[in-house]
Design brief:
The chain has 1491 residues and is an alpha/beta fold. A 16-stranded parallel β-sheet has the order 41-42-44-46-47-48-49-50-51-53-55-56-57-58-59-60, sandwiched between helices. A hairpin with an 8-residue loop joins strand 1 and strand 2. Bound molecules: flavin-adenine dinucleotide (FAD). Flavin-adenine dinucleotide (FAD) binds next to helix 5, strand 11 and helix 9.
């Protein structure tokens, strides 16, 4: 109260003091009065601030304020929207009236009964409205009263958090009566920190005890304080309380203190009903019924005109869905229940979400956890990044799945064994108390329908929501939304009609959907927040968002996103801070400021409240003046400091250089960091200095002022900051020591191609092999282009995930030409051993150096692409052992090299599976190309198939095809790849040369020729190893030794070499076949054609559907020709083929081959005509093939061999098998050079057998015995018996042979007995076994090579006990032999010498028994059958038991018991229950059509 005459002062002040909280009497001269009428503060001249609700001028006529409304209210000062009203009273006659009014006004903010309040509200409001009408020049409609301009409502506010407090204040300012329901014990809501958390760490239990706050101990605000606070109550630091946090981004405690100040300031607490929870809100007529529950459990119903919901929305967690999480065994917690990092000590933690809380919490945890991995949905799937500033924090893309072994798999393919998942995945809006009969819903976190996020159209304005939008200036928005709600409730501001509001909501949703934003983003404001806030401000006639505030919030978000670890302590918008505080000053919200940045991080901002009449000017002069006026002086100081710093850097680097040169020392990390920092500082310094001259020009008034104060101020300030920085750097450079014993860098991550497909399995396997406590040595082998380097690269990068376990991971590309020297150099470089100038050390010395360094370290050495053994000792690498824990992994194309490196069981890196190949190809070609025509995908599949899973080919060809968008281009590609793949773009340049390295590495021309020979077979062809070797022998690649066995062994050795070099692949279970990868085959053909220069040198058109012999330009140059597997019917022409050595014509449709054709092939060594089933005749001119060594005419219909054939004296291999029309082979003895002869399927008579005896070089014969007369001569001929490799006994009647006596046939591999009547099979007595009875039979391996036996329709046989002498039998098929009782007869077996030592069928893999009516036993005891894979039994009704027990067949894969009769299996007796259980599960019903 301003001082006035004594009687007035006494009278009025006493009167008011009776009801008011406080009355102050001031002299007109001592009061510094705010000119801003929108605030309630007045300042006394002793510097004290008084927050007054009203001023009563008792100052007489002289100082009267005009104009006055009703002689009481000064219009100029009474703003319609504000409660602050100045009452001016002059005329004594009106004193009584005005005294009542002013008393009531003051009382309104002190203590009053509801009745008086309502009266004062009414009076006040009437006045305000009238004043507003007069005063509202800016926006008359906004300020004009609504239809019922005097509404003063009874309003319930739910929640006393930042939103509820703002709402209550604005409602009361607008004259409503307010009750705030608050279930907590104090104001502040979310900011009331509690160490207590909910019992269910994911807060999924609906019946849990809810803890409201989600604040964690280390939380600091994520907005700068000056823009975070309410507009008219700025959130500025307070130095009147030492416990307060002055930082720009203060801790949560400071926010709570601020809110408490706010509540106290505006007497808000008096409106709060603490510990009272609203449990139900529902409409009651035009009003609202609220049911609340107090802490003592008492429920209470009350009626309110309106309800404002401010219950907060950071309490109900949202949980990320992770596939497989249900079986994942680790812990899970939501950030709502996170308080401190301690529980995560030494754990591997996965944090889902990388926005504010995720980023904060993950950094909080890194201090104690072993590893922290952030999974973020917004990151691209390949994201994998170690975050700066921390050595145990990684950023990933989202989680792909969680597994029950505890691992978490990220979309980027990384796998982490995690202990805990922290879900920082946000919260859900939740209004459990609200009952609007379904009108208001929460769907995917969209609360609706709501007009401008506040009013539900059908329930507006009496129900409203404050604070729903996110990513905005929360407190500021609460304040504006509250003003809007209050003004609408009082009727001062109108809402559109319900329909219009609904239209707006619908349009807003439509826009959201059109922008493809999910519903859960409905309330996200983000970039459009300023527009939204300005829109509401406009509704209530408030000023728009200040320039600095808008800028700060934008910059703040940017910093939060880009520098999430430092944004709270490092910023570059001081000018905005200044602008903000100037603004506060201008509005008299604060009184003066002085800015000090006390620490280097500038994180403290102190305000010192000085009382100053013109605080603003003072501030500017002090703050700016210092920087501007001192600029020249500061620059000199800065230059000097910089010179010192540079000198110090030079000194340090010189010392460091000297020490590091020895290789044994390396600079300490501090020096490294300091060096980098000094360079950065130096750059900044140079930049700053570059504009110094221009800055000087700007100064005026002897340097006291500037033509552009702001720019000069900023420059001067930067100089000052730079000076501090340079001095700081300088002081940081005082090192006690600058180097230490050399340690090594961690893993250098190597970038890999983003489209890696199909290697997950292999990576997992390789990693397990390497890391298991084995030898520590891993060999990866595989053909060129298969992805070995990629796999090793992934292993290298995987080390970075566990970098704490290995001190150094060294990657060395060895390649073909590498020397020990080169490997040493690479290792030395990685471990910091510096070369000593020109005085070169020798290999041994260097090895010693390396050894000395590595033996003390846990290292991993990765050697890529080695071609021969790398002698680790020679290099100086300690051998990896279980004890030292070190690892060595290498890649090579040769399995041999693995062996030489000491890795017995290397891992093969194989080609991709078809679906993986297609996947890789698709990704490389790209969706756009594949989708450009409906036919392209199918053609693309064909092209992909041509690559046969070779990643190199898939990538190169895929890249070539990526730009081909027409069907023609794709068809052409298929054609080229089918007919002459080498012509395909990229093949000759990028694919074949890579593969050719393997060829170049083959030692010797012989091996290379053998390799090239394999390309004569069609694509994907399974080549019989023995046949291949036979070709090689006849071609002369493999030189013949005295014994065939030795020759063959040499051939097999070459096959093995090619297999181990990954140029051939083994096929079939018994690995008796090999195959060539198509792309390798292309490479072989390319080499054979002299890299495409002599395409006709090797003509290979195998399996391409030819109907006739291709036309060639130069037959004379042809060396090899393969036309096998076609449909050629005839050959007539004669060609000069002087160089031709191999001609493959097998598997065609030849009817005739003219004699002319063979005329000019003087060097032909190999001719294969087999399987030309229509070929009936061989021309006599075949005799012209004087060099022929190999001839195969098997499976043809040739009925007579031409006489000319007997001229082929060089022939060593002749195959005449299954020439069903061939009458005789008489004359064969003239082919005296023959070594192998195939005669199976032919009927031989005695004469021919005698001829065979004459072939003295014969080593292998395959033969049929179907005439009793030849049995003895053949089997008794020592000469022939040793040659028999395959024999078929057929049609031998019982009468002619009751007992078949077999001699020792050591080379016999296959034996078949078909439709024979013998009753017994005996083994011929040897010299040492004198007795004829079984019990004297010798146990020598009579049939040591016999692997396949077929017996069918031999009705006289009772047993096959002789099989005891076939120890390597792998396949046994017996059928339709009704008398057979035992496979091995016990009695007979007992008579064998050393019977107890014989365990039959040790190599047996397949046993087929069918239609054996009399069969009772296979063997009398259970047998181990270690190799057995299948037993098939069918129509053997008497066989009641199999020789199996629970240990049988345990050696290999699952033993399958297949049967043809269900009844039989049901009745089968088992050794015991365990056996039954073991085999019944693998029983398969399989009916075979036995005849
Ligand atoms: C971890 C975290 C950090 C944040 N950091 C910032 C920041 O730095 N700056 C910023 O501006 N914002 C920040 N926010 C946003 C913050 O939520 C808002 O700033 C603001 O505090 C929310 O206020 P409110 O009143 O809407 O909700 P709250 O503060 O949650 O208050 C709601 C109140 O309602 C009460 N209540 C709820 N239901 C009932 C009921 N049925 N009956 C009675 N009472 C009830 C509660 O007890 C509580 O007191 C942060 C949020 C989180 C979760």
């Amino acid at each position: 109260m301003r001082k006035s005459s004594r009687w007035k002062r006494h009278y009025i002040s006493k009167d008011i003091a009776a009801m008011a909280k406080e009355v102050r009497v001031a002299s007109i001269f001592s009061l510094w009065q705010s000119t801003d009428t929108s605030h309630d503060r007045f300042y006394e001249d002793d510097g004290k601030v008084v927050y007054a609700e009203a001023i009563v001028h008792c100052t007489g006529r002289v100082t009267c304020i005009r104009p006055l409304y009703k002689h009481v209210f000064p219009l100029k000062l009474a703003q319609g929207s504000h409660l602050s009203v100045y009452i001016y009273k002059t005329v004594g006659g009106y004193m009584e009236v005005s005294r009542n009014v002013e008393s009531m006004l003051i009382f309104c903010h002190a203590k009053a009964t509801a009745h008086i309040k309502q009266m004062e509200n009414a009076i006040l409001y009437n006045q305000k409205v009238s004043l507003s009408v007069i005063n509202s020049t800016t926006n008359p409609t906004k300020m004009a009263p609504a239809c019922s301009p005097t509404n003063s409502l009874h309003v319930a506010v739910i929640g006393a958090g930042a939103a509820g407090l703002a709402a209550a204040r604005e409602l009361r300012r607008e004259s409503h009566s307010v009750i705030i329901f608050e279930r907590g014990t104090q104001v502040g809501g979310l900011w009331v920190y509690t160490p207590q958390t909910e019992p269910d760490p994911l807060s999924l239990d609906p019946n849990r005890t809810v803890v409201h706050s989600s604040v964690y101990d280390s939380l600091r605000t994520n907005l700068p304080r000056e823009c975070m606070g309410y507009r008219d109550f700025p959130f500025v630091p307070r130095n009147d309380d030492a416990s307060r946090d002055p930082r720009r981004y203060p801790s949560h405690r400071e926010v709570l203190a601020y809110l408490q100040n706010f509540a106290r300031e505006f007497n808000l607490e008096e409106m709060v009903r603490f510990e009272t929870e609203v449990v139900c809100v529902e409409p009651e007529g035009q009003k609202w019924k609220i049911q609340s529950k107090s802490s003592d459990g008492i429920f209470k119903d009350e009626i309110f005109d309106s309800v404002v919901v401010c219950n907060g929305h950071y309490t109900e967690p949202r949980i990320a869905h992770v596939p497989g999480i249900d079986s994942w065994p680790g812990k899970q917690i939501h950030s709502h229940n996170y308080r401190v990092p301690d529980p995560f000590k030494d754990e591997v933690v996965v944090v889902i979400g990388n926005f504010a809380s995720g980023s904060d919490i993950s950094r909080d945890i890194t201090g104690v956890a072993k590893e922290v991995h952030i999974a973020s949905r917004s990151n691209p799937s390949e994201t994998y990044q170690k975050l700066l500033g921390s050595n145990n924090l990684w950023l990933h893309s989202m989680i792909e799945s969680a597994r029950k072994d505890g691992s978490i798999i990220f979309q980027n393919g990384k796998v982490v064994q995690a202990d805990t998942i922290v879900h920082c995945t946000g919260y859900k809006y939740h209004f459990p108390f609200l009952n609007t009969n379904g009108y208001i819903t929460v769907e995917d976190n969209c609360v609706g329908p709501l007009y401008k996020h506040v009013f539900p159209p059908a329930l507006a304005p009496t129900l409203s929501f404050i604070g729903l939008p996110w990513m905005t200036l929360q407190f500021f928005m609460f304040e504006l939304q509250s003003k809007w709600v209050a003004a609408v409730l009082s009727g001062r501001v109108m809402l559109p009609s319900e329909d219009k509001m609904m239209e707006d909501v619908t349009a807003f949703y439509a826009k959201r959907d059109a922008n493809k934003l999910p519903k859960r983003y409905t309330h996200k404001l983000g970039e459009c927040q300023v527009d939204y806030l300005n829109w509401i401000a406009d509704q209530v006639g408030a000023p728009p968002v200040e320039h600095w505030r808008a800028k700060e919030v934008h910059g703040g978000y940017l910093r939060l996103a880009t520098q999430s670890d430092t944004f709270r302590d490092k910023w570059d918008d001081d000018h905005l801070i200044l602008e903000a505080y100037e603004d506060f000053l201008r509005q008299k919200l604060i009184y003066s400021i002085d800015l000090f940045f006390l620490d280097a991080k500038k994180s403290y901002l102190f305000l010192s409240p000085l009382l100053c009449r013109d605080g603003r000017l003072f501030l500017c002069l002090v703050a700016m003046g210092r920087y501007i006026h001192n600029l020249p002086e500061n620059i000199v100081a800065l230059q000097h400091a910089m010179a010192m710093l540079t000198a110090k850097l030079d000194d340090v680097l010189r010392t460091v250089g000297r020490e590091e040169f020895t290789g044994r020392q390396q600079r300490i990390s501090q020096v490294q960091v300091w060096h980098a920092n000094v360079l950065t500082t130096k750059n900044k310094f140079d930049d700053l200095l570059s504009t110094y001259e221009a800055e000087l020009q700007r100064l005026c008034l002897c340097g006291f002022c500037s033509k552009d104060l702001k720019l000069s101020y900023l420059y001067g300030k930067n100089v000052s900051i730079m000076l501090t920085e340079v001095e700081k750097r300088s002081s940081q450079g005082d090192f006690d020591m600058v180097v230490e014993a050399a340690t090594f860098g961690e893993v250098d991550e190597i970038p890999i191609h983003p489209t890696i497909i199909g290697q997950e399995r292999m990576l997992e396997k390789a990693w397990t092999l390497l890391m298991d406590d084995g030898s520590g040595m891993l060999g990866l082998y595989g053909m060129g282009g298969v992805g070995k380097t990629t796999l090793l690269t992934q292993i290298n990068n995987k080390f970075s995930e566990i970098s704490d376990r290995f001190e150094v991971v060294i990657w060395v590309v060895v390649s073909k030409s590498a020397t020990v020297r080169k490997i040493q150099r690479d290792i030395a470089q990685k471990v910091g051993l510096v070369e000593m100038g020109s005085g070169e050390k020798d290999e041994n010395q260097r090895a010693l150096d390396i050894y000395n360094v590595l033996r003390r370290r846990k290292f991993a050495l990765l050697l890529d692409d080695i071609w021969e053994k790398v002698d680790l000792k020679a290099v100086g690498v300690p051998y990896p052992t279980r004890d030292n824990g070190c690892k060595v992994a290498f890649t090579t194309r040769s399995r041999d090299v693995c062996g030489r490196m000491g890795v017995d069981d290397p891992m093969e890196v194989s080609c991709l599976q078809p679906d993986e190949s297609w996947d890789l190809f698709q990704r490389t070609v790209g969706e756009n190309t594949l989708g450009s025509h409906p036919d392209i995908p199918e053609l693309a599949r064909k092209v992909a198939r041509k690559c046969r899973g070779l990643p190199l080919a898939l990538s190169v060809i895929g890249e070539t095809m990526a730009c081909k968008r027409t069907v023609h281009e794709w068809c052409h590609a298929v054609d080229v790849l089918t007919s002459s793949a080498t012509e395909f773009s990229g093949m000759e340049d990028e694919i074949l040369p890579v593969l050719k390295y393997s060829y170049d590495n083959l030692s010797g021309e012989m091996v290379r020729s053998c390799f090239l020979y394999c390309s004569l077979f069609p694509e994907d062809y399974h080549i019989d190893k023995e046949r291949l070797v036979e070709y090689w022998i006849c071609e002369g690649f493999v030189s013949e030794k005295e014994s065939r066995e030795r020759t063959l062994n040499q051939g097999y050795e070459i096959v093995g070499t090619l297999v181990r070099a990954c140029l051939l692949m083994e096929e079939r279970k018994d690995k008796s076949y090999v195959k060539m990868h198509d792309v390798v085959r292309e490479m072989a053909l390319w080499i054979s054609s002299d890299f495409g220069n002599q395409k006709e040198r090797c003509v290979v058109r195998a399996g391409v559907g030819l109907r006739e012999v291709p036309k060639l330009k130069e037959w004379a140059t042809v060396r090899k020709m393969s036309l096998m597997n076609n449909g050629i019917e005839e050959i007539f022409d004669s060609h000069e083929c002087g160089d031709l050595t191999t001609l493959f014509l097998q598997r065609n449709a030849f009817v005739k081959i003219s004699g002319e054709f063979f005329r000019c092939m003087p060097h032909l060594a190999v001719l294969d005509l087999s399987e030309n089933h229509s070929l009936e005749e061989l021309p006599e001119e075949i005799s012209e093939l004087g060099s022929l060594r190999y001839l195969d005419v098997s499976y043809t219909c040739v009925n007579q061999l031409p006489v000319g054939l007997w001229e082929l004296k060089k022939l060593i291999h002749l195959n005449l098998e299954h020439m069903i029309r061939l009458g005789s082979v008489s004359g064969i003895s003239s082919l005296w050079n023959l070594r192998t002869l195939g005669l199976r399927g032919l009927v031989l008579d005695m004469r021919q057998v005698n001829e065979l005896e004459l072939l003295e070089h014969l080593q292998v014969v395959t033969i049929d015995i179907s005439s009793p007369s030849v049995v003895k001569p053949l089997l008794w001929s020592h000469r022939l018996v040793v040659c028999i490799r395959e024999v078929d006994f057929k049609y031998l009647e019982e009468e002619s042979m009751r007992v078949l006596t077999l001699p020792t046939i050591v080379n016999l591999r296959r034996l078949s007995i078909k439709r024979c009547g013998m009753r017994e099979i005996e083994i011929e007595k040897t010299a040492s076994s004198s007795s004829s009875s079984w019990n004297k039979i010798h146990t020598a391996p009579y049939f040591s090579n016999l692997s396949k036996v077929f017996i069918t329709k031999c009705h006289g046989l009772k047993d096959l006990t002789w099989l005891l002498f076939a120890p390597n039998l792998a396949f046994l098929q017996v059928s339709f032999s009704g008398q057979l009782e035992d496979i091995i007869n016990q009695e007979k077996a007992a008579s064998v010498e050393n019977a107890a030592t014989i365990v039959p069928f040790r190599r047996l893999e397949t046993l087929h028994l069918s239609a054996l009516r009399g069969l009772e036993r296979i063997y009398w005891n259970a047998l181990p059958f270690p190799c057995l894979k299948v037993i098939h039994v069918e129509k053997c009704w008497k066989l009641r038991k199999l020789p199996l027990d629970s240990n049988s067949g345990a050696g290999g894969k699952e033993l399958v018991l297949s049967y043809g009769d269900r009844e039989w299996i049901e009745k089968l007796e088992w050794e015991d229950q365990a056996t039954r259980v073991r085999f019944l599960t693998s029983c398969r019903w399989h009916w075979r059509a036995t005849q």
